[in-house]
Specification:
Helix content: 40-55%
Radius of gyration: 19 Å
Structural class: mainly alpha
Order of helices and strands: EHEEEHHEHHHHEHHEHHEEHE
Number of domains: 2
Length: 354
């Protein structure tokens, strides 16, 4: 396995996208039309498309930006929140989506607006949607919804964003101080479940913007605890989703979800940006290496034939479906790491688009 010579094949991205947006699930490498779409996935797909366009300036990537952004704008209600699940017949199945969905949409919109290569019209559309969404931030109570909103606020200029970011950061820190009762449990709740690394990641973002020392302290302590669990076997191994990790127990081994490796890589990159510690960059690499074979199966999850990413590792081996979340997470982490190639001392990293 060569971690630093990675081919990013975009075929599966286009295969999973129609004129509405990106499909949620796949049957093996085929889009599963029955399961329809989610705003969650299209928000993250928007970030991926922006990153692809920033690197390649290909008009086909810009077309994806327009498509995924249009999906998000259509999903937003007049009150600023977002619907999430949409059928193949283009009908939303709920009046409002989850807080996680809201946070990811704010992240996607602010990331897109902040990109220097985006056309004026796209930036204006994002700004209008953000303005509509911001009044809802104080209604977020779930940790991950708050965290993604914080990452989004980190891209938004102005004092209002800083006030909102401070409030959310204080909320996360309060939860940490309540639940991190001793040195053996330095976490925000009494379990590690899904998308765990986004919590310290958000606090690193808050620290870089607000420069408050307690934000950095909690970010570092919680990430160190996360790393102790995630790298317990000498390589990245996410807590399994078939039981999670409850305080006082051992981590569930399966299923390992691709999203976790992506978020872990991004969290360590945020830590590197905040601290300059080379070790954080190395752990970002090791997190991403899960996709490439540095995992419990000693095999990569990227399908060289289709360009897709397998949906995880189960007790019976690989889940051979290749859904949206998997390929999006892989691409975002891949492209994010590529921006740091000059920081990898003595190492060469190549991302090839074809």
């Amino acid at each position: 396995m060569d971690q630093f010579a990675i081919t990013l094949n975009d075929a599966h991205i286009f295969r999973m996208t129609d004129d509405t947006g990106m499909f949620q699930h796949a049957r093996f490498s085929l889009p599963n039309l029955t399961e329809g779409y989610t705003t969650d996935d299209n928000a993250r797909a928007l970030i991926m498309a922006v990153m692809l366009y920033e690197q390649g300036k290909k008009t086909t990537y810009l077309a994806l930006v327009y498509r995924y952004l249009a999906f998000i704008l259509h999903a937003q209600n007049e009150n600023g929140v977002f619907r999430n699940f949409m059928t193949y017949g283009r009908q939303f199945t709920e009046k409002e989506g989850s807080e996680d969905c809201f946070g990811r949409c704010l992240w996607a919109l602010s990331f897109t607006q902040a990109s220097s290569v985006m056309p004026h019209g796209i930036k204006e559309a994002c700004a209008a949607a953000i303005l509509k969404a911001l009044p809802n931030i104080n209604n977020l109570f779930g940790l991950r919804g708050q965290a993604y909103a914080m990452i989004g606020l980190g891209h938004i200029e102005g004092s209002q964003a800083e006030i909102l970011l401070t409030g959310l950061a204080d909320s996360l820190i309060s939860r940490f101080e309540h639940d991190a009762g001793d040195k053996d449990w330095q976490w925000f709740e009494n379990s590690l479940t899904y998308d765990n690394a986004v919590l310290p990641w958000a606090l690193f973002v808050a620290y870089r913007r607000l420069r408050q020392a307690h934000m950095l302290r909690v970010a570092q302590e919680s990430l160190q605890f996360f790393d102790k669990i995630s790298f317990r076997d000498g390589y990245f191994r996410a807590v399994g989703c078939k039981g999670w990790l409850l305080r006082g127990s051992k981590p569930t081994l399966y299923d390992e979800q691709p999203l976790e490796a992506s978020t872990a890589a991004l969290a360590h990159l945020a830590a590197y940006e905040a601290t300059g510690e080379q070790r954080m960059l190395e752990l970002a690499q090791q997190s991403f290496a899960w996709y490439l074979g540095n995992n419990s199966q000693n095999e990569g999850l990227i399908d060289g034939e289709t360009g897709g990413c397998l949906d995880g590792i189960t007790a019976k081996g690989f889940n051979f479906n290749q859904g949206a979340e998997s390929i999006i997470g892989y691409c975002i982490a891949n492209l994010a790491l590529a921006k740091y190639k000059t920081d990898f001392v003595g190492l060469e990293r190549k991302v090839i688009l074809r």
